[in-house]
């Protein structure tokens, strides 16, 4: 036993003298990691407080060698809380970063990083893990069972984090002409943590509308309006139109959606609203003009192409049909069909949004009565109540949000597997 302890101490010194990691340094997690209350990492350790999302930044408070030769690292995250995370020396998948968070090289030999203090953890560790953190949510039933037992609060990220370098983030109050074309970037945060702001739409020089926050000036929506006359919108009246708004409020993953509004006449109650969510939510929607074509990138990185002049869909993973009315003169759900390989959630409703609370005649509010359809190529459509996906938060201005446990793709995957028997990925 004494010899084992001695060897462990020697290994600790060799590894961390080579690593250059010490108390006061910083780590940035690049994947989901278990946040533990103490340095116990065995499978039966009941000490996982929550799951830290990728992008979490932590200050190193302590380093503890494990009998396996791996290490526990105690970090203080931006919210002020302290947790232990696991570092496996056998697979040191890490990126070195300098003081500007710029990637230097992938670590393959620990002796290369003696002078670097900031590192990025890359090892894919999702949900609950065994002593070597090898569980992967998609293929591990134990991990899924563990997640389903955890409360919503334990699954929701508690800090603000970004998936892109600060140099990639648009600065506030930039000139509007900078947004003639937008860049495809990762969501800045996992979930919206504030009341959504009021937004106004303007038209870019390229001919598409964009909505921006009145506070920061950053684009939070891309809108394409088909006013006709063409095969989709057959008359040319200012109130008859099909609007397609790609929205990403607060630049949060949880609030990325496509809102389609078909307005067949000048009666507001005749308009039909359709909302579509696309998965996985890897990037914020973006747009660029190529000749006479607008190319929009969806959250799952698939492409939709529009005629830049008429705003008709002409290519990509959408197939479009004309706007139509039923016998009550209300618009039918927009004839836009998704043909891609991802997962899509869609809900439709006439006269109002198909999600969130609505006001009844007695002045009281209640969840919108509508059904959402979850679809994936090769699988049977799955129908669930919209209220299982969205809720209204009166503390945040009465705005509607996705349920907290569905804000991340990880949580949405657990939900879809349980409801529909297929995976998000």
Overview in brief:
The protein is mostly beta strands and 425 residues long. The chain has helices spanning 2-19, 141-149, 152-155, 409-420, and strands at residues 26-29, 33-36, 48-52, 57-65, 71-77, 82-87, 94-97, 103-106, 118-121, 199-203, 209-213, 219-226, 241-248, 256-263, 272-279, 286-290, 293-297, 303-307, 313-316, 318-320, 336-338, 343-350, 357-359, 365-367, 371-376, 382-385, 390-393, 399-402.
> In this structure, how is the largest beta sheet organized?
9 strands, antiparallel
Number of helices: 4
Number of domains: 2
Spatially, the strands of the biggest sheet line up as 10-11-12-13-14-15-22-25-26
Instruction: Round the mean pLDDT to the nearest integer and report it.
Output: 74
Indicate the low-confidence ranges by residue numbers. Answer: 1-19, 92-179
Q: How large, in whole angstroms, is the Cα Rg?
A: 25 Å
Summarize the amount of helix as a percent range. 10-25%
**How many β-strand runs?**
28
Distance between the termini: 46 Å
- The structure class reads mainly beta
Assign an overall shape.
Answer: elongated
Strand-residue fraction? 25-35%
Structure description:
The protein is mostly beta strands and about 425 residues long. The protein folds into two domains: about 1-155, no CATH class; about 165-420, no CATH class. About 10% of the residues lie in helices and about 35% in strands. The chain has four helices and 28 strands. The protein has helices at about 1-20, 140-150, 150-155, 410-420; strands at about 25-30, 35, 50, 55-65, 70-75, 80-85, 95, 105, 120, 200-205, 210-215, 220-225, 240-250, 255-265, 270-280, 285-290, 295, 305, 315, 320, 335-340, 345-350, 355-360, 365, 370-375, 380-385, 390-395, 400. The strands form seven sheets. The chain has a nine-stranded antiparallel sheet with strand order 10-11-12-13-14-15-22-25-26, with helices on one face. Strands 6-5-4-1-9-7-8 form a seven-stranded mixed sheet. A four-stranded antiparallel sheet has the order 16-17-18-19, with no helix packed on it. The longest helix has 18 residues, at about 1-20.
């Amino acid at each position: 036993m004494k010899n084992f302890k001695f060897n462990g101490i020697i290994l600790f010194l060799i590894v961390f003298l080579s690593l250059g990691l010490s108390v006061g340094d910083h780590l940035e997690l690049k994947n989901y990691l278990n946040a533990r209350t103490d340095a116990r990492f065995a499978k039966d350790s009941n000490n996982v407080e929550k799951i830290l999302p990728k992008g979490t930044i932590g200050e190193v408070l302590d380093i503890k060698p494990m009998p396996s030769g791996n290490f526990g690292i105690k970090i203080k995250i931006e919210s002020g809380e302290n947790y232990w995370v696991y570092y496996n020396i056998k697979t040191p998948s890490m990126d070195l970063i300098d003081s500007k968070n710029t990637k230097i090289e992938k670590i393959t030999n620990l002796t290369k990083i003696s002078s670097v203090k900031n590192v990025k953890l890359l090892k894919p560790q999702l949900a609950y893990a065994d002593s070597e953190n090898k569980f992967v949510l998609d293929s591990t039933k134990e991990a899924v069972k563990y997640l389903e037992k955890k409360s919503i609060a334990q699954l929701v990220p508690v800090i603000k984090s970004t998936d892109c370098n600060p140099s990639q983030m648009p600065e506030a109050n930039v000139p509007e002409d900078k947004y003639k074309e937008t860049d495809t970037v990762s969501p800045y945060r996992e979930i919206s943590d504030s009341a959504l702001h009021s937004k106004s739409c303007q038209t870019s020089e390229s001919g598409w509308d964009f909505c921006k926050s009145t506070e920061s000036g950053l684009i939070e929506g891309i809108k394409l309006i088909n006013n006709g006359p063409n095969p989709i919108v057959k008359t040319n009246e200012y109130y008859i139109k099909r609007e397609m708004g790609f929205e990403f409020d607060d630049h949060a993953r949880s609030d990325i959606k496509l809102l389609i509004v078909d307005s067949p006449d000048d009666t507001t109650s005749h308009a039909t609203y359709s909302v579509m969510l696309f998965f996985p939510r890897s990037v914020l929607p973006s747009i660029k003009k190529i000749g006479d074509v607008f190319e929009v990138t969806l959250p799952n990185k698939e492409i939709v192409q529009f005629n830049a002049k008429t705003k008709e869909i002409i290519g990509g993973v959408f197939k479009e049909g004309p706007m139509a009315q039923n016998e009550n003169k209300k618009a039918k759900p927009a004839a836009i069909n998704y043909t891609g390989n991802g997962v899509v959630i869609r809900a439709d409703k006439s006269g109002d949004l198909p999600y969130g609370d609505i006001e009844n005649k007695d002045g009281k509010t209640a969840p919108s009565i509508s059904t959402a359809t979850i679809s994936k190529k090769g699988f049977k459509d799955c129908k669930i109540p919209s209220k299982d996906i969205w809720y209204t938060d009166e503390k945040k201005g009465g705005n509607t949000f996705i349920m907290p446990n569905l804000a991340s793709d990880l949580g949405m995957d657990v939900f879809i597997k349980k409801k529909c028997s297929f995976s998000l990925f």
